[in-house]
Amino acid sequence: MRIGLIGLGRIGAFHADTLAALDRVDELVVTDPVTAAADAVTARIPKATAVGSPEALLDAGVDGVVIAAATSAHAELLLASAGRGIPTFCEKPIAGSADEAVTVRDRLAGSDVAVQIGYPRRFDPAFVAARDAVRSGQLGRVHTVRSTTLDPAPPPAAYLAGSGGIFRDCSVHDFDAVRWVTGQEAVEVYAVGAVDPDAPAEMYADHGDWTTASVLITLADGTVGVVSNTRTNARGYDVRLEVHGVLDAVAAGLDEGLPLRPTQPGITWPGGPPHSFFMDRLTAAFRAELATFCAVAAGEVTSPCTIEDAMGTAWIAEAATVSAREKRPVRIDEVAR
């Protein structure tokens, strides 16, 4: 297969290595507005060829396109790629705003072109096992789901300025995990956020953003979701999910790299070293996610995360943002349209 990759920043360069390692990918066609980024990829990946623009990439006869460009470019690139009839993988979110996302959804409604939105926890073996435990009934009625994303350090200020805020940028992975594992949609959220007093204003306060946030989610069947996030967890990258039912409870992410230090005397677990970034914690998930996209592009399977799936997660992020700013519970039907 020939796969196109648009955007070679932090996640795009990582995807380039992952795609190149897949047996069924014979060639990568890559592009980035920063020439040095494209040169770095083609220098280390023999099967990668660079072109000068997204338009040139879409004209290159690729079998599928992976969009890893800046969030602000997602909507335009997704519409352009799908409009050419090319199966498309797009990193979350669908677009830079809810209005744009709705436009993309509506313009692609009824299209038979496969689109997959990037939510890698759906492919993490531990998260998959947790979902299987819920769906099989092993846990009985689920009453609580806790999902955590704690980043060791914030991304660059330039990224944060266009990220849409912690709920749209970081928490969405937890929102998607809660929905996907339980099979339930959110009804109402209540969110709070705090800013590290030592954090530069231009990184958070100037954009109405937060360094730490928590969200309570009421799901359609009454299950309570608890989401915790921060950008300043110096011990490491912490991604976990707990699912508690009336019969049993399970957890994903309790491995030797869990970035927690036990205080119980005599306990030495976890042995470490702590996970330092999402790329080492979720390496297997990213590989499975992109391998699945190749199967989607080949017409072998249907998309495991459609635009409609991603919209369900996006509405939680919108509601959480309003809730934290206005300090009140917000129903999903208040923001969804």
UniProtKB/TrEMBL annotation:
Record-linked SUPFAM superfamilies: Glyceraldehyde-3-phosphate dehydrogenase-like, C-terminal domain (SSF55347), NAD(P)-binding Rossmann-fold domains (SSF51735)
Domain named Gfo/Idh/MocA-like oxidoreductase N-terminal: residues: 1-119
InterPro entries hit by this protein: Gfo/Idh/MocA-like_OxRdtase_N (IPR000683), GFO_IDH_MocA-like_dom (IPR055170), NAD(P)-bd_dom_sf (IPR036291)
Alphabetically ordered keywords of this record: NAD, Oxidoreductase
Top-rank taxon: Bacteria
Domain GFO/IDH/MocA-like oxidoreductase: 127-245
Entry keyword NAD: yes
Record flagged with keyword Signal: no
Similarity field: Belongs to the Gfo/Idh/MocA family.
Protein name: Gfo/Idh/MocA family oxidoreductase
Organism: Phycicoccus sonneratiae
Organism lineage: Bacteria, Bacillati, Actinomycetota, Actinomycetes, Micrococcales
